[in-house]
Write a structure and sequence with these properties.
It is a single chain. The chain is about 65% helix and about 0% strand. The radius of gyration is 19 Å and the shape is elongated. The chain has a domain of about 140 residues: Tetracycline Repressor, domain 2. It is mainly alpha-helical. Helix 1 crosses helix 4 and helix 4 packs across helix 6.
Length: about 220
């Protein structure tokens, strides 16, 4: 029984990753279930045992991507010190995941196809999840006296999220948009406007050190049918 469960978990992981690769390469609408099963190296019957439809696979990809983002922001929340630096570090980690992890990349790209997939029922709002966290950490920065006078946490969150989504969309055709260099340049421009006097010198636009936040590979849930 244990061996069968482990095999089922491996098959499900392979299918979610194959679906993510196909969605990222071809888009949700053109991708077929046969393409996904072929990429995963499993039979059509095995695919249908785990997922009833392409829509279910899309939801599984989004759920895996959402868990990867929660892993990053959860690590950031546990770090002491500057809330603004936590924001910088998490942004580097999230956008870096778009470059390195096809499941995260496909999860974000699927947000734009929600309407063509029959509405938002059951769809993970990855961008909304990211926006809520950014807004929360900027409110913490305000409470810690880190924000410059006249800077609203909500307005600042809007600017950060808009830039993040813009980089994400642009990276579909040019991965350089989510590179550490590009994001560091963005924070070099943004931080002087956000940070209170006396706080800017302690902030690192390029992230406060390699490996501070380690994005976990996006993997589907461990449960089996």
């Amino acid at each position: 029984m244990m061996v069968q469960q482990e095999r089922a978990v491996r098959t499900r992981r392979a299918l979610v990753r194959a679906a993510a690769e196909a969605f990222a390469e071809e888009g949700f609408v053109p991708t077929t279930l046969s393409t996904i099963s072929r990429k995963a190296g499993v039979s059509s019957g095995a695919l249908h045992f785990h997922f009833a439809s392409k829509h279910d696979l899309a939801r599984a990809v989004e759920a895996a991507a959402a868990e990867a983002v929660r892993h990053i922001t959860g690590q950031a929340d546990q770090r002491p010190g500057s809330a603004l630096q936590r924001l910088v570090d998490a942004t580097h980690a999230v956008l870096g995941s778009l470059e390195r992890d096809v499941v995260v990349r496909a999860g974000f790209e699927l947000v734009t196809t929600a309407a063509r997939r029959g509405g938002a029922v059951g769809v993970v709002d990855l961008r909304g999840q990211w926006q809520r966290w950014v807004c929360a950490v900027l409110h913490t920065a305000r409470q810690q006296g880190e924000l410059a006078g006249g800077v609203s946490p909500a307005d600042a969150a809007g600017a950060v999220v808009a830039a993040s989504v813009g980089f994400e969309v642009l990276s579909v055709t040019d991965p350089a948009w989510v590179s550490r260099h590009t994001l560091s340049q963005y924070w070099e421009l943004m931080l002087p406007r956000l940070a209170a006097p006396g706080r800017l010198a302690g902030l690192v636009p390029g992230g406060s050190g390699p490996g501070v936040l380690r994005p976990a590979p996006a993997t589907p849930e461990q449960t089996t049918p």
